[in-house]
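FIELD: query
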Amino acid sequence: MTAFVLSTSQGRVDLVDVSELREHEEVDSKHLEALRAEIQADGVLKRPIVVDRTTHVILDGEHRFNALKQLGCTRVPLIFVDYNSPSIQVKSWRRQERVTKQDVIEAGVTDRKLRPKTSRHQIRLGSKLRHISALQTRVDVPLEQLRG
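FIELD: result
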């Protein structure tokens, strides 16, 4: 794995080649197009994605990942987490559906993706359970830095 490190006030953010990451969910094409246009207009990616350190499955940021690929980026800023940690939980956004960590990893490593917005990852920070995006400190990485 080739990783470059960005310094942030909140901790370590790695820049990793897009080919090293695995998606576990399909994307919503309308949301993807709107996000791609926003990132292109901003000229920066504001927040990194969250990825399991062991399997390289994307846990949060599938749409940002795909938008960056469409914009010709070859690297993506990310935060690695230990998905096996009991402080990370997964639920479905849909009340009638059940999703497990094993479902997420299996979808990522087999390319049998789950429907868009199936998994909702949460992490225990102190005494509170928060959406995993709470880990995503603002980085504002210029697209030019991600293209080459």
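FIELD: remark
The chain has one domain: 3-147.
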